[in-house]
Amino acid sequence: MTYLLIILGICCFLCLYRIARGPTAADRAVATDILGILVVGFCGFFSLKAKQDWYMNIALIWALLGFIGAITLAKYLEGKHFDE
Amino acid sequence: MNEIGMVLLIIGVAFDLLGCIGIVRLPDVYNRLQASTKSVTLGTWLILLGVFFISGGFTAMGIKALICIFFIVLASPTAAHALARGAHISGVKLWEKSVCDKYEEDKSK
Amino acid sequence: MKMSKFVLFVILFLLWLLLTWTFNYQDVTIGLILSLFIAILMGDIFTEHPGKFKDIKRYLWMIAYIPYFFWYCILANFDVAYRVLHPKMPIKPGIVKVKTNLKSDAGRTFLANSITLTPGTLSVDITDEGYLYVHWINVKTIDIEEASKEIVAKFEYFLKHIYE
User: Fold this and answer.
1) Helix (H, G, I), strand (E, B) or coil at C104
2) Does A50 score more than 60 pLDDT?
C-alpha cells in the first residue's frame, strides 16, 4: 500500500508541473481541479491505513469544495460576476 | 473481500497515473481536460470502491465512500464542462492541427 | 408545492441516516429536526414536478442505465490510455455541433455529463434550442445529423425513459 501512495504522490507532482509550466490560466485551473480529485483518493488511502472513518468526512467535504472552486475559477475565466 | 479491494486500489491508481501523464503530454487545454477528467474520475471511483470492500462492506466508512462516489459522479463532469466553456470564452485557441471549430463560427455570428 | 417539500424532507433525512449510520435516538432526532427545518425553508425551489418522484418505472430504467454507462466509461478510459501512451499521439481534435431531442433540464444535464465521461467527447456548451457543442478528440464527421447519431443516440433512448 505504501508503493501505491508513492505513485499517487508522483501523480500530484505531474499536476504541479502543469500548474507551474501551463502557458495559459485555463491550464492551471484544469490542473488545480484534477489535484482536488486526487486528494479525495489520498483521503481514502489514509482512512484505510489509520483505520479511522473520519478521513472519509474530509474526502466528502473536499469533493464538494473542489467542485465549487472549479466553478468559481470557470466564472473568473469567463469574466463574469459569480451570480450570473 | 480484502483481495478484491486491493486489486481495485491498484487499478484505480494506475488510471490516476494515466490521467496525469495525459495532462503533461497532450497539446492543448481541451485535450488535457478530456484525458484527465475521464481517467482521474474513474480512478478515484475505483479507489473509493476499494475502500468500501476493504473496510468490510456496509460500515460507517464504506457508506461514506459510496456517498463520495455519488458526489464525484455529479461534480466532476460538471466542473469539466464549466472549465471548458470558461476557457473558450476567455479566448484560448484550439491546437493548430484541429479539424474544425463550430463553436467559434457560431459565436462570431 | 407541499409535495415538493415532502420529497426534499425524505431525501435529506435518508442522506442524514446514511452519513451518521448509527441508529441511536439522539442522532435520529437531530436529523429529523434539521431536515424538517431545511425542507420548510428551501422546499419550494427544489423541484417543479414532484409527481414524477412517484413513478416506479423510472427508477428501474435508472438501475438499467448504470451498468450501460459504466461499460462506456471503462471503454473511454482504455481509449484515453491508447491515445496517451502511443508515442505519436493519434489525435485529431475539433469542436462539432450535435442536436438533442430531450426537453427537460435534468435530462439535458445528465446527457451532458454522460457525454463528458464517454469515449473521446467533452461537452462545451448548450443552447436553448437543444444544440450541444462537443469537443471530439477524434473527429469522424462534421455533419450535425451524423455526429448526433454517433454521439447522442446511444444515451438518448435511456434518458428519454428516465426523465420524460
Assistant:
1) coil
2) yes
Tell me how far apart the alpha carbons of residues A36 and A40 are, in angstroms, rounded to a whole number: 7
For chain B, the structural domain boundaries read: 2-107
The answer, yes or no, to whether ipTM is higher than 0.90 is no
Q: What ranges do the domains of chain A cover?
A: 2-78
B83 interaction partners in chain A (CB closer than 8 Å): 26, 29-30, 33, 70, 73-74, 77
- A46, B54 Cβ separation under 8 angstroms: no
* B98 confidence band (pLDDT: 50, 70, 90): low
d(CA C13, CA C6): 11
Please provide the average confidence, as pLDDT, over all residues in chain C: 81
pLDDT value at residue C60 = 85
Cα C20 off chain centre by: 26
Q: What's the CA gap between A79 and B90, in Å, rounded?
A: 7
pLDDT tier for residue B108 given thresholds of 50, 70 and 90: low
Using a CB-CB cut-off of 8 Å, the residues of chain B touching A56 are 51, 61, 64-65, 68
Higher-confidence residue of C108 and C149: namely: C108
Residue B74 contacts by C-beta under 8 Å, 6 or more apart in sequence? C113
Domain boundaries, chain C: 2-52, 55-163
Assigned C-alpha cell, A81: 460576476
Interface residues on B facing C, Cβ-Cβ cutoff 8 A = 15, 18-19, 21-22, 25-28, 30-31, 33-35, 37-39, 41-42, 59-60, 63-64, 67, 73-74, 77-78, 80-81, 84-85, 88, 94-95, 97-104, 106
Grid cell 492541427 is found at B97
